[in-house]
Amino acid sequence: TEHFRELETILAEEIDSIESASKRGESVIPEIAFSDIVANQVDDTTIKAVKRRGAVVVRGVFTKEKASWWYEELERYLETNGYFEQDDPELDHYFSDLKADRPQICAVYWSKPQVEARQSPNLAQTRSFLNRLWNYQENGTQYFDPDRECTYVDRVRMRQPGDTSLGLSPHIDGGSIERWLGDNYQQVYRSLFSSNWKSYNPFNGAFRPEVEGIDSPAVCRAFRTWQGWTALTKQGPGDGTLQLIPTTLSIDYVMLRPFQEDVPEDMLCGAVEGRAQAITDEWHSLLLRGLVSIPKVNPGDTVWWHPDVVHAVEHEHQGSNVSSVLYIGSAPWCDRNVRYLERQTQPFLEGRSAPDFAPEDYELAYT
C-alpha cells in the first residue's frame, strides 16, 4: 500500500543511519549517566533519542566494586551449590526456533546479588525515570504507577568465552500471532491497522497492561515497560552479548508487513503460536540491516530496551572474559503485575523457580 511504502522509505533512511554509524565505529544507542538522573539533568534531546531508538544504556547505576562483588558472590553461589553439575532440562520452547543450542542462562532466582540488585534504590530511581517516558495516565485514568515497581524475578547470564550455544536470532518478545489477533493488542496497534501509522506512539501505555499472550513456557506474563539487564562484567561487541535494531519504527514495519501483496493471506511473517516473533531475512531483510551490538558496558551499567524492539544475542562469545548479567527489567505497579506477584509469592517463600519459568526448583536446597 501507499502508506506502507511511505513507512518503508522512512525506515530505510533510519536503517541507513544506523548502518553508517556502525561502520564508523559509533553507537546510536543513547547513553545516560545515572548521576544525571539523580540530578534531574537529562536533557530533552537525549530523551527524544531514547524514544526514537527504544533503547538506552544507563551508566553507573551501581559502582564497579559493587557489581564485581556481586559477580564473585554469584560464582560462589553457583559453584558451592553444584549448579553446573546438574542436568538442565529443556527450558525455552518459546525460543526453540531462535537458538542454535541450549542457552548458557543460569536458572537461579534468589541469590543474594539478585535480590540486592532488584531492591536497590538506585535501580528503583532508574526505572521510575524510564517509566515516566511513557504516557502512563490520561483523562484521570492511570494505566500503571511509574514510581512503584513490582519485582519481576528473572535469571542470570554467565556466558563463557568461546561459547556458541547462547545465540538467539532477532526476535521480539511478548508473543507473536496475538499481536494481530488479541483484542487489547489490536487496541495498542489500532493506528497502525487504520493506515495512520504516523500517529502511533510506542510509549502510549493505554491497553498495554491488559494484553493477553498465548500461554507458553517462558512467556512473560507480567507487563514490562522495559526489558533490561545489569552488567556484572565488562562486555561489548564480540563478547557474546546483546544486539538491537535500535528504532521504534521496527514494530510498525513488522505489524504491517503481512498485509503486503507479496505475502500469502494466511501468513503472519514469522509468527508462530506460543513463540517469540521471529524477524527473518525472508520477510524483514530491511530491518536486519540495522542489527547492531550494544556499546561496551562496565560492571554496574544497565541496558534497557522497549518490549517491541527487535533484539538478539551474538552467536559467539569471542572475548576473553565471562559475559555476565542480571536480568532485571521494569514491571510497574498495575493490576496485571499485582496478580503476577500473587503467583510469585509462594515460590519466593519456598525458594522455588519463578512462575514464568520451567520448574527446575534447583535452589530449594541451596545455601
From TrEMBL:
Q: One Pfam family of this protein, by short name?
A: Gig2-like
Q: Which SUPFAM superfamilies match?
A: Clavaminate synthase-like
Q: Which InterPro entries does the protein's record reference?
A: Gig2-like, IPNS-like_sf
Do you know which PANTHER family this protein is assigned to?
Answer: DUF1479 DOMAIN PROTEIN (AFU_ORTHOLOGUE AFUA_5G09280), UNCHARACTERIZED PROTEIN YBIU-RELATED
Q: What is this protein called?
A: DUF1479 domain-containing protein
